[in-house]
Amino acid sequence: MDEIDLHIHTVYSDGTYTPAEAVHKAKEIGLVAISITDHDSVKGIDEAIEAGREAGIEVVPGVEMSSDVDKDEIHILGYYLNWRRREFLSKLDFFQKIRMERNERLLRRLKQLGMEVSFDEVSQLAPKGVISRLHIARCMVKKGYVSSIDEAFESWLNPGKPAYVERVRVSPFEVISLILETEGIPVFAHPFLSKRDDLIPKMVEAGLMGIEVYHSAHDESTVEHYKKVARKFGLLITGGSDCHGEAKGELLMGKVHVPLSILWELKKARDKIARKIKKI
To answer: All domains of the chain, ordered by start, with CATH?
Structure first.
């Protein structure tokens, strides 16, 4: 059965593969389509599409954007968006700026806690992308402050932990609206990690069109649960590994089995949006 992966990060956010390398790895694994969904960045999409043409891999343009409700982070994926739209790129620049300011504060907090991680050290891990907490966690492991990336997050970097620094807050409803304005398909990413199913009805009202049912953090029972949620609210089902290359020590691409039929349904939604825009 042909399979796809609609959640992949590259060096333009916090992955270790270039977009072309991600495409070639997908070809090697036997995938027929992937989506590049970097955090607050669409810089890798054109490179991936070109590499996909050469390799015979379909590349779906995508993005992953962070938002907040209370003390919880909610991530929204956007597919088939008009990623060259000037207003959208301007918004991404703003999100990248606040992400950078937050990480600078986080590094100062780590220093106060006795963990010296410099901006230059972290920047070396993100030569093309915006620095993220994953880059900082990798530096913490490298310098021996923690034994693993999981420990860095669970003991220091996650909400409620000593080094956590809040960002400028953006609601998931704002992000959904932005993706819709950019002619994209907004999808609730890895809902099990957010543990905020209570927000799904409100997000659907705001225009949410899909939910990431298949994910590396979702076991079989979780997949079945979110299939039921998708049916209840009439949402598209999507899925992907959330691959960051080798940043987390394990290559996740190909580990989550997402059928090609998922992409067919996503394309139907894309075409429906295109027809609607054409009529306006």
So the answer is: 3-92+168-279 (3.20.20.140), 93-157 (no CATH)
